[in-house]
Specification:
The chain is of the alpha/beta class and 506 residues long. The chain has 16 helices and 17 strands. Strand 3 and strand 4 form a beta hairpin.
Length: 506
């Protein structure tokens, strides 16, 4: 779907404040128009908090309202998210003030090379309206009528175009991520995705016999939900083929657990609330494909899988102690049904491995993206994705490069390493089992609780046979976005789309 249809209002460049047709001016830095200098200095003379809080006032010289959302005093440890946050807060205040046509002054920065782009992205993020609200209350589908931006850079048009492209991907990811367990149940996501990606190759796997035979670990998670037609699981493969011979292949698998009850190991004590966000990995993959579809890279082949399933509890749900043979022929003993994310992705990841090998795809790089563990949130802290490379990807320096790029564009990562301990943790404990899916306590109470699932995904898919010394080494990266995807009541962030785009599509 075109970018213009995925942006919630018209967005344009403006050259002159007085002729912009706007009803409020949003300023987020101390690079202010000369008409405001005297008034700003006057405010500072009696209000020591002026440069620390968002304010709204009337400028007599400009004859228009002004929203001022100041940046903090920057230290060596701040990053470009300061600009994103300030821009979002300025739009939030303008909307609360009832304004419909803000003009955002976009500053440049000597400290952050991409501050202008990130500022525009921050403003656009504040304009998103959840899909169900748009559908149920159409007259509330826009927060403002139009946004004007004034960018002093000679690359202003390029910056705005790029921001709108990236935002279109984030819009798709937010739509899927924000939908409640019914609005974005697997069949409804299928409807949404097939409408968005009409010109991509889309293969929807919904036949239960096919799922049971070819994706047995996914089928186990799907068993209880499959009893309810509107909750039945889907695996959706999306493919973009470039116009020129591909030089590299990106293969992404997203966790799309549309609701996670915990299954038989049910989430108790009120911690089930918010589990409609457990599909944000698949949402991010779909958003990334939206950018690919618009950007149309000339020589990059992209294959994606959205693993959409509801982890329901019921008389037919899978339970701990079951032994299930994965697509790769690995005998998996279930340890905890609340570790369903690795189960629902493993067989699709195995399929990606098979394609990379059998079709001899050029320079394949496999990914899993998932809101997988509470341990990731504990280890990294809110707002940070975790990147874990296998040995082959590690030797290319991929994780550090992704971290560096994420830092530049306000999509930050922490880097974790896989160790032999993580593989040993999953090793089968008795005759007849190859690996154990999980221990029986939460990941946040398990040492190395976010690395162990990455090791499991390598073991359960046979990727451990494609290491550095194998005839066909395969790069594989696991991204745990549990801490960065956005928890209720906040809206989904669409992390890590920006960093992935900048790292792999440029």
């Amino acid at each position: 779907m075109g970018v213009d249809k995925l942006i919630p209002c018209s967005v344009k460049l403006s050259q002159v404040i007085q002729k912009s047709g706007c009803d409020v001016l949003c300023v987020i830095d101390r690079q202010i128009p000369k008409e405001l200098v005297e008034q700003f200095n006057d405010f500072r003379s009696y209000d020591k908090a002026f440069d620390t809080v968002v304010s709204c006032f009337k400028s007599s010289k400009l004859n228009m309202p002004v929203v001022y959302s100041p940046l903090p005093e920057l230290t060596d440890y701040h990053d470009v998210r300061c600009y994103q946050n300030a821009a979002a807060k300025s739009l939030e205040r303008a909307i609360k003030g009832g304004f419909k046509a803000p003009l955002l002054l976009v500053p440049e920065s000597d400290k952050f090379a991409y501050a202008s782009l990130c500022t525009v992205l921050g403003a656009l993020s504040e304009l998103y309206v959840p899909i169900q609200y748009r559908e149920d209350v159409p007259d509330k589908s826009q927060r403002i009528s139009n946004l004007s931006v004034m960018i002093s850079s000679p690359k202003a048009e390029e910056i705005l175009k790029e921001a709108l492209l990236l935002e279109s991907g984030r819009f798709v990811a937010r739509d899927i991520g924000v939908g409640d367990p019914e609005r974005m149940a697997p069949p409804r996501i299928e409807e949404y995705v097939t409408k968005i990606f009409k010109n991509l190759k889309v293969n929807v796997i919904s036949n239960l016999d096919t799922i049971t035979k070819e994706y047995p670990l996914f089928a186990a998670v799907n068993r209880a939900a499959n009893q309810i037609e509107r909750h039945r699981g889907r695996i959706i493969f999306l493919e973009y083929k470039p116009p020129q011979p591909a030089k590299k292949t990106l293969m992404l698998v997203g966790k799309g657990v549309t609701y996670d009850t915990g299954g038989a190991d049910i989430k108790a004590g009120g911690i089930m609330a918010g589990m409609c966000r457990d599909k944000c990995g698949a949402a991010a993959v779909a958003g990334f494909l939206q950018i690919v579809n618009e950007k149309k890279p000339a020589d990059i082949h992209v294959i994606a899988a959205l693993c959409l399933v509801r982890n329901s509890v019921g008389e037919d749900c899978y339970v701990s102690d079951e032994i299930i043979t994965s697509r790769a022929g690995v005998r998996v003993r279930v340890g905890n049904t609340d570790a369903e994310g690795r189960m629902c992705m493993a067989d699709a990841l195995c399929r990606m491995k098979e394609l990379a090998v059998s079709e001899n795809l050029p320079d394949p790089h496999l990914f899993t993206i998932a809101t997988l563990t509470g341990h990731a949130a504990l280890a990294a802290g809110s707002g940070y994705s975790i990147v874990i490379d296998n040995s082959v990807a590690h030797c290319t320096g991929h994780a550090r490069k992704l971290q560096e790029i994420g830092q530049l564009f306000g999509d930050p990562f922490e880097v974790s390493m896989l160790r032999q301990d993580d593989f040993d943790f999953n090793a089968g404990k008795v005759i007849g089992e190859d690996v154990v899916q999980c221990n029986n306590v939460g990941s946040s109470r398990t040492p190395r609780g976010h690395q162990v699932p990455a090791a499991f995904l390598i073991q359960a898919t046979g990727l451990n046979k494609h290491g550095l010394d194998s005839p066909k080494p395969l790069k594989y990266t696991h991204l745990d976005i549990a801490a960065s995807a956005g928890e209720l009541p906040a809206l989904p962030t669409a992390a890590p789309i920006i960093a992935l785009t900048k790292a792999h599509l440029n």
